[in-house]
Structures are given as structure tokens and as C-alpha cells.
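Late entry, evening session. Most of the bench is empty. Finally got around to the prediction I had been postponing all week. Sequence below, unchanged from the version circulated by S.P.
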Amino acid sequence: MTVPPRVPRQGEKTAQFPAPLGGRGRGDADISGPDRPCVTELRLSAFGAHRGAAFPLGSLSLLCGPSGSGKSSALRAYEALARLGGGAELGEVFPAPRDCVPERARPDAQRRRGFRIGCTADGPEGPVRLDVAVQAEPHLRIVGERLTAGGRTLLQTALRDPARRAVQAAWHTAGSSLVTRAPLPDDRLGTALLPLRVAGRTDGQRQVLAAAQQMVVALRSVFVCDPLPRSMRTDVPLGAGRLLRGCDNLAEVLWRTRAECGRRHGLLVDAVRAGCAGPVYDVLAEPGAEGAGAGGTVRALLDRGAGLRTPLARLGDGELRYLALALVLLTGPGVLEVDLAGEVPAALQTLTVLVDGFDRDLDARQREGLLRLAARMCERGHIRLVGAVSDASWAAGLDGVTVVDLEP
């Protein structure tokens, strides 16, 4: 179910948000929609419990379904594609590949079994499709890959010789030769390697490069977030100030961000005030028991007013997850531990946040408030969110939310 974005009435004031760290400001050109490459469909042809599944993704998507319906595996597949798009080796992305093979998949005569995943990335080049076939047994390798756009196959790879650690690749040229053929390694995504192999001399080659770049840019900027309350309650050492996926270094990030953008921090305080019990005048970090100097630590607190400060260690799990996810939504790639496409301007990239158990430990007020914050941030175009929940009935009717029901 997709609810169309709400159009403000004439004269109605809308919330104004500062640019995220690493993003653009309100005064910049409005770069959204197809000008920012983004993943609009995830396909799990044969992956875990999924067979022939295709999930449409909007700017804010909730995957819902009971335990065992495959919500977590769908997010894992998205993360795997993102890491492959960033150039990671297959073994790093799938440390336990047999777990991804459909349970009832039978080996062929050569004892081979595997899985297939893919996605569609929309952008300036129109919809671009990527489909990848991975052999998990007896040896982990990419045995087939296809990149298509406008009904044309731009890249296709196939395993020709099982004895060699390479696949035969053919990409569109449209020059003196219609295609160019060359071997590519079987442990990396060929689409991510094309800029190193294609010269871009012909119109066909330029089309291949543009489609590959769109797919890679759409995939790479992904932040997987799963706040762990038990790890957020302790003092943490100072470091790079980039939020980790478990948000255990939240205090260190607050130490940095509170001073970098007062307006954005004010929005965070407003969000925390709405999601935490008791009065909240500020969210801050202070030196821990070891001090904040070299080798020191910091801890995060809520300023309750009248000189009273509550350490995060005293907050409930739901309050901590709410605070961490609000911080993620109100910051950006400059604060989050994200692999960006450095050769592409930040204004042409979209950060996608993946959250398994989006509503875990949250009460009704917290989850609805957090979803409304996510909807307001996602409609600007610089950030997208894909979350997994067991039940999304509470999100029905909220503008801009795409609900994908995975229930069999």
C-alpha cells in the first residue's frame, strides 16, 4: 500500500530542516526524485525464504510481516548489494553463503547450489536493472550478472570454465564492434568494475558507464542501523565522531554534533522531548570518568532543567532507540559510518538507512513520532529509509509511507 505524499495547502507553513552534515542546504537546487539515483525495487528471485519476490521501495518503506516472513533477509540482501556495489569482495559480503540458499534448492549434477538477488535503480538514465546469480556451493562465486536499461542488455557475465576464477563478460559498445568481451573476476560485482574497463569513446560505452554509475551511486550510500541500548549506556572514548551501526558511540557523536549545527541539534532536542518521559531541555555530552582529553571518554545526558541531568544509563531501551534513530534521521553521511561514492557530488547522492526492528522497544507514541520525523526528512530527497516491522497497521494513512506486506 502506497500513500501519496501530502501537498501543503496554500498558505500553510511547513517544517524547515537544516541540511544534514555532508548534505546540501535549503538554498541549493532542489535535487530529488529521478535526478538522485535511488533503489526503487528489490528482487529476491531465490534468496533465503524468498522465491520470485519483488518489493517496491519508496522514499520511506516499511517491510511488515510475522516472524519468519523474511523481513530481515530482505534487508540483508539489500545490504549485500550495497556492499558489492562499493567494490567489496564476495567472501566479505557473504561469510556464510549457505544460509542464503533457499532451503529446498536441490544441487545440480556438479553439486552446485546458489541464490539470486537484484534491484532496480531509478535516476537520470531511467530505470536500470541489476540481477546477480551467486554460487554458494561448492565454491562461492558470482556465476552470472546482467545490467539492463531501456530494454537493452548493457552488461552480461557468465561462468564458462568452472576451473577458472573468472567469468566471461560482454558489454555494449555500439562501435565497430557491437560488444566488447573480456574476463572479469568471479568474486566482485562486474557493474562496479566497469569504470575501470570501459573507455567511454562511443555512445554505447557512455551509456554503459552512465547506467553503471547510476546503479553504483544508488547502492553505495547505505547506513545499516540497529541501536543496541545496552551498549549506549556506558562512557565511550573519543574518536572520529562517526556513528556506528549499533550506535554504541552515540555520546561521542553528540559531543561533536551539538557544536556543529545548533539548528539541527535543536530539532533533535525537540524530537527527544517528544519521545522521552519527563522534561528535556537539552541533549548533551560531557567528559566521562577518564576526562575528554587524549585517551579520555565522554558520556551523554539529558538536561532536565534546574541543574538536574539524567545519564543515558537511566533511560529505558525504547527511549535510547528512539534517541539514536532520531539522531540518524537528522544527520547525514558526514556523521554516519557510510561508504560514499567520493567521485560524485553529495547533492547527487541519496543516503538509505536500513533498520531491522524499526519499532522494537518503542511505545505507540514513540513509533508514530519517529515515523512522522522520518517521513518529513525523507520527503526532502536526501535520505530514504527501509525499516522492518512485524505489524504496520499503525502506519496506515501516514503520508509518504510505502508498506510492503511480506506475509505469505
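Two things to note before I forget:
The CA atoms of residues 37 and 123 lie 4 Å apart.
The chain has a mean pLDDT of 87.
Will write this up properly tomorrow.
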